Amino acid sequence: MFAKQLSVFLENRQGRLGEVLTVLKENDVNILSISLADTTEFGLLRLMVNDPEKGKERLKEKGFSTMLSNVLIVALQHKAGSLQKVLQIISENGENVEYMYGLSANGDDASVVLKVSNDSKVEKVLAENGVKTLTNEQVSAL
């Protein structure tokens, strides 16, 4: 199952991140996970939210450059080697992880967001290997 990630391109200046978060808050878009990477001139904010379409539209209305991407949210057990096993499956099938970040922990489980080179193929091989993936809705319900 794919999930939608909301990405926002930000000028690297004081208060800009706060402006994004204010727009989301005012429109009842709940942040489930957040990752921010920066360069000298701009930042790339990656968000998992409960309503990615609404988040994208509201931010776009306020002048932010946004996009939605397919990602995989992989549920993992809190057990040594769980993430390594998933990454090994992906690698053995000739695919690459472009980036990843943690989502949240819920009881005995955790999740990671993965952006991979071939999302359809990776989704299929993970399912064939019994690896559970989640949608935005499923994560919101946790």
Overall pLDDT level: 90
Report the order of strands and helices. EHEEHEHEEHEH
Q: With helices defined by DSSP (H or I, 4 residues minimum), what is the helix count?
A: 5
| Assembly form of the protein | single chain
Rounded to an integer in angstroms, the radius of gyration calculated over CA atoms is 16 Å
Largest sheet entry: 7 strands, antiparallel
Gap between N and C termini: 16 Å
Kindly state the percentage of residues in helix: 25-40%
Total beta-strand segments? 7
Short recap of the structure:
The chain is an alpha+beta fold and 142 residues long. Helices cover 34% and strands 42% of the residues.
What does this protein structure show overall?
- The protein is of the alpha+beta class and 142 residues long.
- The protein contains 5 helices and 7 strands.
- Strands 1, 2, 3, 4, 5, 6 and 7 form a 7-stranded antiparallel beta sheet that branches.
- It is globular.
